[in-house]
Amino acid sequence: MFGKSADNGKPFLDNLHLHLAKNIIERFSGTAFEEISVYREHQGILEYSRAYNKLCEATDMFRRRYGADFPSLEEIAADSDVVFVSTDEFVDFPRPTLPHIVHIGGLGVGDSSKNGGLDEIFSEQMEKGSKGVVYFSLGTLVNTSSLPAFAMKAVVEAARRTPDYHFILVVDSNDK
């Protein structure tokens, strides 16, 4: 029970939220020295218990089907060399990850031509570059107007030097 848990691969005690080591978000948000409430401790224990019970139920189901010697799902997860995760690493919120995690988001997305294709305005943009399209966006966390002038000039210069590609530069409304 104190091995790795299947819900997130952390050791059991880490799931109780009783440990002193904080994650990177908690460190930067200034909560590293805050006390964890009794409610939060109980919530962590409850979350772990639910996940562990589901894991045990799933292991029992596999053992009924494939025999009593089938390894527990906890053992399988701990021994996995590669973990496929149904997220898109380019769209998902950035966070530290492990090298054996492979993002496979978008596998269920069908051919866009079968779904009616792109709107006309987007189709026109995608046809402009003879070698392709480069979509440049810093996301919602960084405003391009807050960048030093030389940084945006470098991006524009890179676009100018590669005329075979059509660049779509996403800038905020305050950028000139």
UniProtKB/TrEMBL annotation:
This is glucuronosyltransferase. Coiled coil: none annotated. Pfam families: UDPGT. Signal peptide: none annotated. GO terms for molecular function: glucuronosyltransferase activity. It comes from Teladorsagia circumcincta (Brown stomach worm). It catalyses: glucuronate acceptor + UDP-alpha-D-glucuronate = acceptor beta-D-glucuronoside + UDP + H(+). It is an enzyme of class 2 (transferase).
